[in-house]
Design brief:
- The complex is a heterotrimer of chains A (280), B (254) and C (230).
- Chain A has 280 residues and is an alpha/beta fold.
- Chain A has 2 domains: 57 residues; 207 residues, Rossmann fold.
- Chain A is built from 12 helices and 6 strands.
- Chain B is mainly alpha-helical.
- Chain B contains 8 helices and no strands.
- The radius of gyration of chain B is 29 Å and the shape is extended.
- Chain C has 9 helices and no strands.
- Classes of the chains: A alpha/beta (280), B mainly alpha (254), C mainly alpha (230).
- Chains A and B meet through helix 2, helix 4, helix 5, helix 6 and helix 9 of A and helix 2, helix 4 and helix 6 of B.
Chain lengths: 280, 254, 230
Amino acid sequence: MAISSLKSDPRLVYLILLLVITVPILSNAVIAVPITPTTRALYDFIQNLPPNSLVVESFDYATSVVPELHPQAIVVTQHIFMRPLKVLFVALDNNGPPLTDAVLDAINKGNKTYGVDYATLGYIPNTATLIGMPSNIAQFLPRDTRGNPTASLPIIKEFPAAKDAAFVITFDDDSSALFSYLQYWQGSFNISVAVGATATIAPGFMPFYNSGQLVGVLISIRGAAEYESLLNQQYNCCLGISGASSAMVALSASHMLIIAMVVFGNAAYFISRRTSKREK
Amino acid sequence: MNPIDLIGVWVGVFITLMVLSFLYKENPFFRLTEYAFIGLAAGYALAASLRLFVNQALNPIFVDGNLTFIVPVILGSLFYAQFTKKYSSLYRLPLSLAIGYGLGVTIWSVFATFFVKQVTATMIPLFTGNVLTTLDNVVLVAGTILSLSYFILHREQKGVWGGFTKIGKYFILATLGAVFGSTVLGRMAIIIQRVQFLLGNASFPWRALGMGTATEGAYAPIGVVAFLVIFGYYLYREKNKQVNSGTTSKVTKA
Amino acid sequence: MSSDKKKMNRGDLGLQVIIFSLGFFYAIVHYIAVPGIVDLQAVSDQLLAYLTAMLTAAFAIGVINLTRVHVINIKRKRATWRYSIILLVCLFAMAIFSMIASPYALDPQAVVIPASVIAFSTPIWEFLFYKILVNINSSIFSLLAFFIASAAYRAFKARSLESTILLAAGLLVVLGQAPVADLVWPGFGAIRDWILAFPNTAGQRGILIGAALGILVFSVRRLFRYPWGD
């Protein structure tokens, strides 16, 4: 009876999923998250960057995957701002600039000043601009998102070409941004690259991590939760700033439900197969 | 408490539930959000593209006085020739420039990044001092070669060769299984954050998503109740319509 | 090559010359420097700036198409004409407010547009983007979670050896990435990490190298397209 109900009306499955997610959220339960090697590698890399290095953060995701990548952007940006580093914010997706502004509004920027320690250069419209930036940033992105001439910013006077960057991290939802940075920035100028990826495309980046082309990979909201945990261990702060850690119990519950659904579905399949064989 | 943010939270709740109402059945609430989304996204993209055109094409001419940029602007405007009947083929000129550039860049960039570096990374010692590392390396090297062999289609996959390609197929299936498993994580992350939002949970990143603060967010469940009442009333009216007209359920047209 | 060789007309030939010239230039400028005679990198950068200007000129094509389709919908009073009105209103409202108040504002420093207009438009734009657009897009994607749960029950059956391998790999990864499973036995996480690092990497690498070869071959063939059009 249960099997035929689930088969005939998928809305029952939807309701079960909703309940399985809602109960842990209402209970506000928190769980420790084991750290994966790719997250640890990224954290250690940023933690060990020499002072005054230039970091480029690229917001390359659409608003559809904000729940997966925005938490990553929050924790990584907070970490970078806690270190003596300079940051340029760019985007290969046109939704990037307002999402950048939202992250900058939410984090603790310490005593970092716009234009001196960080700047938001906005959307990179095409690969031609991306290829040109390592030679001359101001020529290809003449104005920042506030309308200031890029060449007048102190951070650009200090680092006029993107090839001077020590590291670029891209928060990417469809692999095109990462591939662009790997091809045009790392391939030609050996700039270290890392990625914050959605869970769907993260397995496709493992060959690049294995070959050393990527210094680290954050995978979806779990990667953000792991990063929060690492920040908390080092700086005794930042647990919960992105909302990722509090989602882990609900995440575990939903995963167990999927496994149960698959097992249940296969059991039903084998039972019905055996029944039909017996009837023959 | 900011009243605009509070209204924004309730609007966000309504929008979320209007979209999720599709899970019950297709309805005008979902359709409305669908069309609104396309309009908003297209309008935003237009503004972004226009600003880039101003920065990269018009500013060099009118601000920096570099008149050589007039030529690429004229060439770029030929893209709009596709809307005319007589001159529609003119759009192929700027397109050819873009294609030529793209092909040239692709040749060196794809070769270095996706071919040379990946092949080099596969050249690792098979037998190391450690059993586990040896196993890992054998899996990596053999798996890469065998899964590549599966795509050699000009030769029939039978006999010994067929055996190799079969193992390659299994590696590809394991890859696809890993992608499926990973996809579950991604999809669940999105719905979990939506539910956090609907419940007004304090751990939702309200400020980082421009939704105000947790103070306004705590009132989100009121919006949930309000929507459920409205949607319930809609379903009640739909059911009455069907009962009165004696027809089976269909999507209500606007 | 087909046995029926079509000659390209003059126009096609001209375009092919353009494609070949630019493509060949950008393919070799990465590898060749001609010191003292011409700074190829500077020429390449200047051409890139011109190409960027050219490509950005196509900013309105999508919106023109969209507007045409939906205006025709409205004129002919098709079934969804009321929704088309909503679409167009949202489109132009968002475009106007984004041009005034978004990070893509045309005049962020209030040189032409009065500062009072920008101050009035900014909260409206923020409302449209953060409170409406982000919520709609995230919610539409969140529907996929429900469909994957339903598919897990209905479609993922171990009918053959191939589907069993796929299912086993998938379930081990799902199990390993649930934090609670890792806390019950750390081996689950280790298995997931191993699957992603080795079998998955091997398969992905095979696909990547194969795709790279295909792209290279296609690019070179397209660059050297023969006059008879093959």
